[in-house]
Write a structure and sequence with these properties.
Layout: H1 2-8, E1 10-19, H2 23-35, E2 40-43, H3 50-59, E3 64-69, H4 97-106, H5 108-127, E4 132-137, H6 145-157, H7 170-176, H8 181-202, E5 212-214, H9 224-233, E6 239-243, H10 252-257, H11 261-268, H12 271-279, E7 282-285
Parallel strand pairs: 1-2, 1-6, 1-7, 2-3, 3-4, 5-6
């Protein structure tokens, strides 16, 4: 009876992005998983705390872990000498998603290097020995048309047909929080177009994706009040909420970089949020348990 009751509830993935970015992010994701509602995390395989994140994931086997593909604002897997058009001398990508998007679209040399780097990140994830839950992208650059085409090929090759597709979510998000309205309207419009295009490309490829993904327009401020409002009004369909939690004891530099991170951790460990998930008719799930 209990199993039937659970199956009648709607799957909800709660994901922590940037796993492996730092020890403070790792601590937050594990705390949100152990003490809160977080079910899933997306691993940055090239960042400094990735090794620690892998060990923590192995010690917490119920935490689903996928690949957070990084092609902007981060480190590359391959050395600069192999991908000189898309990284600097330190082996880092540009910090501008716009600049990266233009280069990947118009430069054949950049596209060739991009394909090698994407494969290297997939291979690095497989080498961790973790079960490959899903794929998404840092700043959602994986939805760039050039990148997404290659992503479909790699997902099929590596047999991980679970991917996040973000759309604009404008109506609900702006009902809950209208701060920074002009930029939200731009991002919402851009990702509505990209998201619809990505969904069309996935048609016929037998991929699994949540029907709704929440977090784009509230990135960095998925606080308790926002989550409670969201859960009260979300559509009754398979969904993902993603956040960027940060440990409460993170150093000042980390808090300057992600000032909303500690509030997001508090939201993810809130009993009120857990109760709101139950009340709304959702069940906590992962990409692999959504079907």
């Amino acid at each position: 009876m209990h199993t039937q009751h659970l199956q009648s509830k709607i799957p909800l993935i709660i994901n922590g992005d940037d796993f492996g970015y730092s020890q403070a992010v790792n601590r937050a994701i594990i705390q949100a998983h152990r003490e809160g509602v977080l079910t899933s995390a997306s691993l940055m395989v090239n960042e400094s705390a990735a090794g620690e994140a892998v060990e923590l994931a192995k010690a917490n086997p119920n935490l689903a872990v996928g690949l957070h593909l990084v092609l902007v604002l981060g480190k590359a897997a391959l050395p600069h000498t192999q991908i000189p058009h898309i990284t600097d001398a330190e082996g880092r990508f540009t910090n501008s998603s716009f600049q990266a998007g233009i280069q990947y679209y118009f430069s054949s040399a950049a596209r060739r290097e991009l394909r090698h780097e994407m494969r290297a990140q997939f291979e690095r994830f497989v080498a961790t020995g973790l079960n490959f839950s899903h794929v998404d992208g840092h700043t959602h650059l994986h939805q760039h048309p050039v990148i997404f085409e290659e992503l479909i090929r790699l997902c099929e090759e590596f047999d991980v047909r679970r991917v996040r597709v973000v759309k604009g979510e404008m109506r609900l998000s702006l009902q809950l929080d209208r701060k920074h309205l002009p930029i939200k309207l731009v991002w919402g419009t851009v990702f509505n177009l990209l998201g619809r295009w990505c969904e069309k490309r996935l048609a016929g490829h037998d991929f699994i994706q949540p029907q709704k993904v929440y977090g784009l327009l509230q990135s960095g401020n998925m606080n308790e009040g926002y989550l409670l409002g969201l859960l009260n009004q979300m559509e009754a369909t398979t969904s993902e909420i993603y956040a960027h939690p940060l440990a409460l004891d993170a150093d000042e530099t980390a808090k300057r970089e992600n000032p909303g991170g500690p509030r997001e951790l508090q939201a993810l460990t809130s009993q009120r949020v857990r109760q709101a998930i139950e009340t709304a008719g959702f069940r906590l799930a992962t990409y692999e348990s959504t079907i």
